[in-house]
Fold each of these.
Amino acid sequence: MNVADFKKIYLEEYEKLNTQQKRAVDTVAGPVMVIAGPGTGKTQILSRRVANIMTNHYTNPEEIVCLTYTEAGASEMLDRLEGLIGEEGRKVRVSTIHAFCSELILRNSEIFGGQPKIISTAAKYEILKEIMDEYVIEGNPLYKNSGKRYSAKDQLLELFYKMKRENLNKEDFEKEIDEYFKMIDLSIPGDDLYSKFKYARNTKDKKAGDYKDNAINELQENNKKLLAGVDIVEKYSNDISDHNYFDFDDMILWTIQKLEEDDDFQRSVSDTIKYLFVDEFQDTSVVQNKLVDLLVKGEKNPNIFVVGDDDQSIYRFQGVSADNIRDFDRKYQPTKIILEENYRSSQAIIDASRQLISHNSREEKLLISAGANKDYDYQLPILKSYPNAKAEMFGVLNEIKELIHSGVSPHEIGVIYGRNSYGEEFAKILRDNGIFVQMRENKDLFSEPFFKKIVAILKYLCQTSRDVRELRKIVYFDFFEVELSEIAMIRNLKKDEKISIPTIAEIDKKLEFVRKKVNKSSKYLSPMYVLSDVLKSLSIDEYIMKSKEKYHLVSVLNELYKLMLTECLIYPKLTVKGFLNQLSALQEMRISLPIENISGSPSNCVQLMTAHGSKGLEFEHVFIMKCNDGKKKSESWPGGENNSGRFVYPPNLNGKDENESKLKEEENRRLFYVAMTRAKKVLHLTYSDDSTKTHFINEFEEFIDEVDVTESFEDCRSVDEVVIPKFTNDVLNEIFDELSLSVSTLNAFLKCPLSFYFNKGLKLPSETNEAMVFGSIIHEVLEKIYISVDDSQISELTAKTVLSQEEALALFETIFEEKSYQLSSDRIKKDNYVRGIRIIENLYKKASYLKDGVIAVEVPIQGIRLGDILNTTVDLSEISDIELNGKIDKIEYEGNIVRLIDYKTGNAENGKKKLVPPSEKAPLGGDYWRQAVFYYILFKNAGIDISDKAILVKYVFVEDSNNEDGFSETEDIRITQSDVDTVLEQIKESIMKIKQGDYNCGCGRLKKDRDNYPCDYCLQVLANTAPKLDNTEALEVATYQQTRGNYKSLSVSKLNRFLSCPKSVYFDDVLQLSQPAGLSAGTKEKVAKVTVKHAPTGPVFGTAIHETLEQIYKEDLQLEEAIEYYDNSLHSHQEEIIDTMSVEELKEYGHRLLTNLFEHYIPDSLRGKNVCLEKELRFKLGDKYSINGIIDKLEFDNNLIRVVDYKTGSAQRGIEELAVGRDYWRQAVFYNILLENSSEIDTNGKQIVTQYIFLDDDDAKEGYSIHTVDVTKEDMDIVLTQIQEFWDKVNSADFTGGCGKDDCDYCRLEKFVDFQLLNENVEVQSNKKN
């Protein structure tokens, strides 16, 4: 289409606008502020206003900057602009504020100090971990031992951002803390500070005005933690600077700093912006507003256009001010335009939401329904109450079912709630009832079963030798489809025994092949290479393709790949083993790495989201669930925030306003307003009677239709049934014949029968953890501090003497040295060493606690037949041959008492909770109660002569911070006959279940709650369980449509991949499996065998040489300057060097090449105005399909236009690609097409030639070679046909064709995708839209 056509399109779209929208589009001079309520079409006016400026005011697109709130918003804006004004629309500078700043930083690296790099989440935490390991040690207020050692990590990062944004240092904190104490000191009766920190009247020990010790001590402790945090943050900040990293905050803060410091830089930036647009202005932070001001600084009447709605400002917690709109009005005195015609909602919804928001102090606007729903029935928002939260969920479930049954598209049903955890629970109920769900949730990479399985395989491969015990765990994974009874048949095989089961033997063989490659290769193998090798060698890529959740699995895989890449950039030449060590360190910090979901949004899914996540969306039916306030004011809708562990700041630094509670209340009201205004036709509000209905509903109760709920939901429940196939009878009998029951096995079985399935049936090895290793070390020390007076064994009840404290500490040193290798990091070793020393010192510190006597330690008691147990009313005849066994830590004689003692490490308070006997709340009793009874039974029936001595049991909690001794012990526990019979009944019942094989059903604890962690065994089963619902068909269509929407233009590299195998488009861009799985098309015919004389130079060499050559021609560099620039470029990219020459080798190689180029090529080549560098060209074929390319160098030599393209890599293979039909030939033709159709470059009467310079040619004495390609019209016709074929296939989702080569990964995997069905479904969807 030509300019006139686009002008016609623009005018047609312009005429669709209402009066106020037209005014917003037409007012182009000076500051303009548009107040756009929900559904008033603000996106339309932004794109049309840009089109107006370009069409009617003759402005270059590069002079227009549009700052959007999200990347999706930027992409949508560019699409709209292209539709209105063609390819020129894509040249408008549309981006998020962060992306705008990032581009400025990277383009002006000399101003921002070298080559800054964006910091990854992993790098951020790794740097923080190093600092915490060094400085947060015992004595530091932030120090915590054991699993919570890094619990301060997130509050430290929060403090880091606060100090950065507010430009604070330690002196500022110390000054404010001192000021706060002075205020407390000077406070008088009636002051809040006085009542908080001082006594109001005389008491027995205190006078009026004296400090309250607890309050002051708590304040001092908080201040110590804060200042300790400031110290860590300052070290962290220095480290970040040393690495030249920058993050999202820095993008804006650095830009502001440079714009303020450097007037020339500020002018150079603002001079390029003729028109500035800011979308969602109400959501810009104080810092972002400062940037906006600097972008138009110096302009008397700047052309700045902002769009926003003060009623939708909901990000105050991110530093956003609700006064943005008012501040802009005061600062710029803009033309103000208010959009009041709502094209989304019915009038009833508009009226109700307006009544709610009218309770805020705001500028009134009168929204009127003007869209397709303006004539919809005046249906007031429907309010329903349910007796409890469970009933509410099942009630809404039924309503959603009815809506879908009545013909409402699931995609037009939105469910909104306050907090994510609620949505996860409701999503499960929907899925259990056959309803597809799409939920906006942050999934954690480290929690994903698929991730854990891949990592387990990588760990296994990094072991130096084969291990059948570990292999059992690997072959259990559902990748391999091994029968569980087959795994059970190898459960007793030792480390290197031969496997006779064919299916397992084959997997073993494949794993050993990859292991040898990983451990014995003389070449460097990156983690990414090993990952792709594992996926192919073990056919895991095929498993992914067959999975009902393949898009999720690929999303997980992509995050793992990105993490590997990130770690390799931080640590060049990182091996797989090194990567696993880094991974372990990150997991040790208990961080979460979010997974970016690659799939599209299917039309058959109900949409679930938080109120914040609903912004910008719309649905015919909206359910706002859990419209409840909590018991405390801080728990009001949308729900309480978890502020535990956060630093407590002095009043002047806590970021809270004097009217904080009012501001918070108004923001929550705006959030509820945003949720309400997502509804187009009907708004459903629900709450449960187990807590108060939110007061926000009361504020518009006259606009509500309250409906009674008559249904009962008592019988409705969400069942977490976790079942695994039973073993075959032969296997069950073998397992039962081996049975000898310990108390740990019994306890585990009673918690979850699946523990027996995995631990005894399959004998899958459990990973050692910190608690197990440390407990083992302490138990061994406490065993060996007792020395027999005679030559008896320490496990015999004989006279023993105790080592001295010095000897005990030396013993600990020896044992710790032997066993601490099992601890995963130096920090954990250091912490546990200190922990162990403290335990020993505490035990010896208490006078006469460790003393000589008649003692036995680590006493094994085995072979106690249940049929031989005396004095019980329990009938054990059916299980009489089963034996009990155990090992008692310590037995001591004391007068008429025999005391059985068990040592416990870890949290004493948690341990004491396990001592409870059976009760209504805990019908089975606690584990430690049962252990005490079990040991009593063992000892009583062990045949040991104890005469008439009483048998008592005692626990020693060797770590008890609440006890002044540092440890504690229970009172002597006296076991009754009732206790014995109860435990024997539990034993009998458990053994009978084991005999029947009834241990294949789990406990079903899948979520963490206040009392329990999720069950590892149940999670292990679920990790191998396919989802009940299969929505692959709809996901394929939605993800294809998303991918097609992202295809803005075709490059020659994409065309080449398509022609190598048309299916590559699906695997590269739709499923996105190609990169992490290393997928490729089959090898090309007639490929010469190349003898490589050196290690490959790799992509970093190509980047550095390309950048250097660009600068040579751009800045007219001489050889010495070019070499210096090349070295700097190489240095800035050195972290990206993987699987290639080393930095020093690349340096030497590049110097030699540059010297040759300056000697033989550069002096005679064109420069200056006759050269155009890195020229990007775009062109639309037939006004429909866009193609683009970036040409390294264009030389204008009289009537000759020379396309110069630099190539690195194998020159021999590159030269082959110059043949007609091959990739480099096609690239030359493609560039010719771009040039001949370019509106920027005049090619009339000029000849175009393409010159390839192979910069890595060992066969040429100069080290490089030059080859020229002449393009004919026939060549261009061929490539134009290929371009047309690409777009035809992509537009119709026709991926049925393939290259058919035996070694093509895409063709190998095609059998798992119904491409014909995808093509048909896409056609159906297209017809619906049309």
Note: The first strand starts at residue 32 and ends at 36.
Amino acid sequence: MTDLFIEASAGTGKTYTIETMVLALLLRGIPIEKILAVTFTNASARELRRRIFDRITLELEILKASHDPRAEKLERSLLFFDMIRVFTLHGFAGAVLSEMAFETGFFPGAESPSHFEMREKLFRAIISELSTLSVGQLEKLLSHFKRNEERMIGEVASFVMLNPKITPVDSFDTLSDAFEKIARAIDPKELDHDVDLLRTHVKGLENRSHAIKEEVVQALDAIRCGSLPAFAGLSVSFLTCEPRAGKTFPALKTASSLFRLEEIAEKARSPHTTILCVATKLLHRLGKEKSEYGISDATLEQLQNAIGHPHVVAALQKKYDAVFIDEFQDTDPVQWNIFRTLFLGQKELFAVVGDPKQSIYAFRNADLSTYLRAKLSFTSTLSLTSNYRTARDVMERINVLFDEKNTPGLFTFQEDGSLSYSPVTAARTSDVGAKFRIVTVESAASYSTFNAFFAAHKEAIFTGVAGIVTQTIRDGALPSSICILVRTRKEAQEIADFLAGYAVRSAILSPTPLFATDSCTLVQSFLDCLLFPYNLAKLKRFLLHPYLGLSPVFHDDDLTPFMPLFQTLAILRDILPRRGMAVLWKHFLELSLKPIMDTTLEEVLSHDPARLDEVRQMIAVLLDTDLTLDRIAEFLKKGRKTIHNSSFLKKPFIEEQMVTISTMHMSKGLEFDTVIALGPSMRFQETIGIVRSENGEYGVAATLAQKKEAYEEKDREKLRLLYVSLTRCKSACYWFCFFAPIAKNPLGSFSPTELLLARFKRPYTSYEMLYSKMPPYGEILSTLHESGFSLIPVSTFAPALLPPGNAKRTAPFLPLPFKTEKQTLTSFSALFPSGPSSPVVAGSGDIPPGKEFGILMHFIFETLIEKEMYATRNEKVILSFIREAVKGTRFELYTDKIYSMCMAALRLPLFDGIPLVSIPPGCLFQEAEFGYADPVYGPVKGFADLVVFLPESIYLVDWKTNLLPDYRPETLNRAMEEHNYFDQAHIYARALSLSTRAFYKYADFDAAYKGAFFLFLRGLPDGVVHIPGGALSNV
């Protein structure tokens, strides 16, 4: 029997080690169903299962080629691969409780409630508990959450979901009684004496006239009266005042009493006390029914109780021969107790794998101290010391940064070495482009806060990021190989908008719930078609889904044209009971849309690979539910109602031409050729309210000592977050570091970068000393330089506009330089009502005039460009789409004319001699929304039909469907004047000028802007009016 503790630093092949050990066990003859692997997320479980399957498949091919008899063992493993037990922790607990229901006393219903039903049930229970609060308590709680009721309930639910052990919480009445008892025991004379002493020794109690502040007087009155509500409503603290110059804090006779009073007041005024009270009452009321409310750790609690039954333990120990626990750094005391009781010393192999330096999920109840204690229980340890991810030159720099010899007590702020960094060896040889660069942002000026510093240098920092990105891409790297690490999603969006100015497309990794996406509504509308056969309204809703992009015009309510599709849906409905849900979803993607469109659903979705990927993710979630058809429909509806829930998150789809922007937390487990680490240098100070003690109990941090301990733990995690960030890179790392004097440095406010650099290659520094004695930045820079680091000023990186094809696909809302709530925005159509147009009678072959035709043509051009059909140059595809778009409308007779108009517009060599069909999709921006205060027309708003961005040129395009007598230049000019189209061109150009200068960074807009094209579609190729950019230079 072997108990093995494996420590695996980032990039050292943790998962590879697990799959190799599984393979070795299988080759020794251990059946695959006797192997158990447990990890902490659904995504990790799926990835581990896939990796093991691929490894077995590859090894089997090798053994077969060499006629090795062991191939039979692997063939059996593949045949029974579905029997391998790869679980999340809660999945394992649920499986044990269900499989051993009689022994554990766990009897789930015939049909367990869905996740959303449990979530909704929990929310109702929380609301019921909140309704018992007093008006004052509820008002205070709402104020804390900025009157966002949904956020308040969600925060309480997130805390309750942890099933926390809570230190007994005193109610407000109990706190009031304790406050009054202590206050009454204070001698008034001693209190007055101490206050007089404080006035002469500390700051903050007197006003400029040297009279005692009114707030201090009120606080003293509250103490004399023993009134907690009065004292808690003030922000007076007698014991934390700063001593005057040349003075020390005096010894007070009432110090201990004042300390206890201020501690009680802090608890009473804290909204976290109210949250703890609500959580305590709720968990007590739910009792054994917690798991019915979706409280996941309640399942672990039930399993922990169950393993007290000897038969349960014996059965589980007999069931598995080998057990692997992955991501063990994210464990907690309850989880470790289950693993230890069941598997420690009992298995042929019990292996846990983790990296304490990547423990960054304390907010999910991960407890690093449990990991460190558990390590002592293992008889064998193994450290993976070869890094297979990062190039040697980069790995050497990371070793220098985190080596405990250079920074004693780096991860612990202690000298005990309970968590230390062991340098790893790079297995990869250095790449040609391998580099580790520290990008410096320096300022001699002093700033009161970090936010003030960042605001002053934001433009320079973002410009540096853009410079690195564009240079890396110009050097031949794929944009998808670049990742920018930030702290918040707000910063991610700001950088994405900034990069768009240099034609850099980006994707922000964010926890988007799948139920908040259009893939959910697409699947839901499809299920409605199955549940309500031959229902035309349901079918139309499905066909009109935005992901399909079909024409919004159908025939009347005649079912005849839709009968082939209805029959196909009927066949699919019949498939389900006979062949299962997996086959149904396979046929869903292969669904033929005839006669509406001569293609399949998957082919339509494949025009946008991100959409197809999103739909497939939605299907994967539904396959895991094992629900009936009607229950799936209900599951989706409930999911839509609780889209803020984070249990089913969309996995981001990143195209090759998109740079990744991620928060530091979301980057864990990912790797990129080039990493730009901006987030680690951003300061943030988390609110300390509810804290967890060493015994795992939660309580309110009311004392300075408790808050200091909590801040110290938060800062330890910041350092681990820095380690995770820098180890994401494979070849190049650009680490942004800020150097400027900041006046305010409260405890817990330093960035991860500052926490490391302030101690780098310096003697051991305690946590308290760190914030009080920050070394001069000049010394830090000198130390880094002497240690061999390459320091490059941010101004070195000058961005450049990328070639066409890399531009962001959607234009941002153009800037509004005024407060819109105080001024009314006027649309162009309201600003210039239609002028007196010359009456024209449509000929027998003319397409009828009117707004309806204009709307149809705009829809056609928007779809051709959005779906990138225009760029395929496939005339059959375009003609097929136009036929579908006009089918059932009064313009169906003119299909060929409409097709000719579209092709003529697409082939006109308007843009530097280049036709629209030759311009990459990334350079085209449709329906660009704008709003601004025009100096001539006042506040205006609108949409520009099309903006074309080329490397050195910008154009505007507007589609016109006016029916004119002819399309000679003089007729066109008269129509332009009658309909105020010249004014329209001025307004659009002005809006474009503002947007381009704000977002796209063209060096000279006036030189880049080549004017507007008004395309009168009925008269092409002659019906073109070009207003050159020079004619708009005065805008």
Note: The first helix runs from residue 14 to 27.
Amino acid sequence: MNFNKFLQSLFGNKSSKDMKLIQPLVNKVKEAYPEIQKLSNDELRARTKQLQQYVQDSAKQQKEKIAELKAKIEETPIDERESIFNAIDKLEKEVLDIYEKALDEVMPVAFSIVKDTARRFAENEETVVTATEFDRELAANPKNDFITIDGDKAIYHNHWTAGGNDLKWEMIHYDVQLFGGIVLHQGKIAEMATGEGKTLVSTLPVFLNALTGNGVHVVTVNDYLAKRDSEWMGPLYMFNGLSVDCIDKHRPNSPERRKAYMADITFGTNNEFGFDYLRDNMALSPADLVQRKHNYAIVDEVDSVLIDDARTPLIISGPVAKGDDQMFEEYQPLVERLVDVQRKLATQYLAEAKQLISEGQKANDQKKLDEGFLALYRSHKALPKNKPLIKYLSEEGIKAGMLKTEEYYMENNNRRMPEAVEPLYFVVDEKLNSCDLTDKGTEWLANQVNDKELFVLPDITSELSALENEKDIDEQQRLDKKDDLLNHYAVQSERVHTLQQLLKAYTMFNKDDEYVVMDGEVKIVDEQTGRIMEGRRWSDGLHQAVEAKEHVKVEAATQTFATITLQNYFRMYHKLSGMTGTASTEAGEFWDIYKLDVVEIPTNRPILRKDLDDRVYKTAREKYAAVIDEIVEMRNSGRPVLVGTTSVEISELISKMLNMRKIPHQVLNAKLHKKEADIVAEAGRSTMGMVEIVDEDGNKHKEERLLGAVTIATNMAGRGTDIKLTPEVKAAGGLAIIGTERHESRRVDRQLRGRAGRQGDPGSSVFYVSLEDKLMRLFASERIASLMDRLGFQEGDRIENPMISKSIERAQKKVEENNFGIRKHLLEYDDVMNKQRTVIYEKRRHALMGERIGMDITNVIWDRVVNIIETNDYEGCREQFLKVLAMECPFTEEDFNNIKPEDLEERAFQSAMATFKRKTDRIESVAWPIIKEVEENQGAIYERIMVPITDGKRVYNIPCNLKEAYRTEGKDVVKQFERVIMLHIIDDCWKENLRQLDELRHSVQNASYEQKDPLLIFKLESAKLFDSMVNDMNNRITSILTRGQIPEMQRQEEVHEAAPEQPTQRQNYTEQKVDLDDEAQQAAANQDTREIEENHTPLVKDKMPGRNDPCPCGSGKKFKNCHGKGLE
């Protein structure tokens, strides 16, 4: 027993402590359950309504106060409204806190209701209740095959269509699922092993939190799971009167999607929730909004969404001027020639190294050995992914010798490294993911283009300093020279950046490994699932570089209109929780970024799976040969085999090797991911077949026996679908998991292991590793390589030891820590933008909804008055008051010099507000007679009218609701004018700010050449940009609003009807999910961001009723006059 285990035995670990805290709550649920079990079906549903009423009434007092305060807003002077809005905000937070306490109180009963509903469905073919209006609405939809109406009774059946399959309900919650449900309700992450029923666990907190009426979002990783889970679990909620919908079933911005968000429980994919938030913040009318406030979300496969995709921005973008003016195609042939030159050099050094090392070993000549290993190290730094090099490094003593050479040149802070890399044209560092030109490379490029300075970044700091010290030029010349220098630097940095990205594309990104080329497009392949990630692009010009390399169309740059990362989207929820099978390895990151605690839930039955030690081979060839032998052995013993790979390339290699041995198998990769649920479901079976057996004497004979199914899949493929074993397979030893390589993340390996051992099933898991694998090559192979050399291992021999497995896991931990560091750094950039986004979107929402627009305009006018007085002399003040506020300066020069600035500002503000009020009153008084006349004489004809308002430069046509304008005696015209102007200017300024942030983020990366922190520069410069944008925005808003007037009296017959309000048009916009930190977005997916609809053929219970048939809702009316209205 080691020291850690000894301490755990004394004090317990985190998991056992968590369970002790949750156990009393589980006991309360068990105590409440017998009483619920005794209730009739109708009493059970009535109990749900009681709970709902109790929870919603718990904050009745606060909600009444909020309603009172809202009623007062219109009567209160604009400058006194802020305190009311602050009080409303405070009360709304109080309501949420009160709801949480009420939910905790009713949790035992609510959980018991869900559990007993599941029991009643499982034990009865039909569950009969008294039909309500809600039941009749459900039955009227032919897709809801779980319910039928018989007179005044509603019959809920226990089998229905979900995800295209007819499913029978057979699940009842067991105790550990109650633990999971409580953890999720508390806003934590429940880590539950594969097969423990996470989807069923989620029904408990979803039902409980839906009682508030504020909405619950269940977030999945793909649209198949979103649709399947909403249909699978939906009847459980709907039986108890809660509405359920799935946003991925409906088009964006449609009334159906808005209705889906209004449901008590809403299912959907992470992308669609994020895109809907962005679309809502581009809406031009409250009618366009689909989302409610973000209340509670449960994220399924939370590690995929909040870790792997955390820094993935969702972007709505549009075309930008000169977007296709890029240098990638121009310099691609040059870089291709440079890489060819380096490849020849790397091959030459490798051949030289082999010869020198061989001669040195034979003659025991240390000098030759040193020269040989230096040549080998140069070949490695030139092209580390060169396959002949990787093969040679796996030979005895070679890797260890090269690493010794590397240590020698890295001593004293890399002092001698320039000597080692001097002959190379560029240096590739796989660990740092970088590729940098050497002096020799720069010189080669200069000779190719006959320009020594073309690829050299100028020392901008010293050049600007020298310019400042020049004394024989005037100020204008100095400014012109400064502009020239900065322009030259911008062009040069763009050129150097293009070159670096092209070099990366050629040396570090391989076709059919990191990406594929399909239909003339470069598409990224997910390293974990092997799926093609439609619409995703690499960041910072890297995708364009790969496109140039593959000679496909280099997509033009676009401009961001709205963007948010998934991390920042999910942090907006009042309460967030998640579930997955593998989160404990990332527990630190979850707490650091989201303040989410990870709680490990024990399994329902003990895990019987045997996790064997890693089997380490010298070369990949030996490893794959051993994997095939293991597959054959397992299959012949009647055990199904799941082979986990880390890439599509390896899946196809294993498939070819199995075909050579004539072993039938299924491959699950990017090309077949639509069939993944079917393939994974079949992976736990065995079938009778003939097999050739070799006995001890070497004689061969054929024998009939049970043969296990063989399935090859990338490690993360098939998440959300269990592998169920037949009794014969369990008897043979269960599912055999074979990993062909260790992944960089322990979490992904655990996910693969977790496929076996479901619900106490037997099984085994083992990983095959070679010293040529990427993880081993980068981090863990030095000691193992030298150990294998010392022990004199022959070809095909392997090491299998717990210490080796732990050493590999330590290497994985290093990679995880490094990846977390990168993610955190990139998220710091997004946090800067997120703070700005929060401010702008709040202003925009105020303008859109109209409630707080008066207060915002008051603040804008106050800000302009203060800004004018604090930044100008008296003459400047006079000019700015006329220019910005369209009024005479409200004080004299004497006042300006003698009165305190605070008093002067207050006086000027009151005068500005009086002027603004006078002008808005004028608009009302001019508009009112016309509106009155039109409404009273032609109100039946017109619903909306267009009111022209001008600021002297252009005319704005303001659409107004005629009845509302009449009711408010013209006040609504002013409100609509303010709303339209505010939205127009906020959008215009924010769009320009995003463009400047895109450019800034790209340019600050060059700060590292000047020994400065790019992030610090980005924060400082982005703050300046934001201040400048707010300043410009406030000036423009004030200038237009204070000059607004109706151009001329219109006669009644000249009034024009406004077109009906249309949803926001976005035909020129692109919506996409961008890989890593890409802010230079490219066209990816058109307006509809949902995943492509799959052709699932559902089992339909009943045909659509005929027009004259009785309506299935049981109302007695014909279908065409009831729920069939509008369907003809």
Note: Confidence is low (pLDDT under 50) at residues 1049-1053, 1075-1087, 1091-1103.
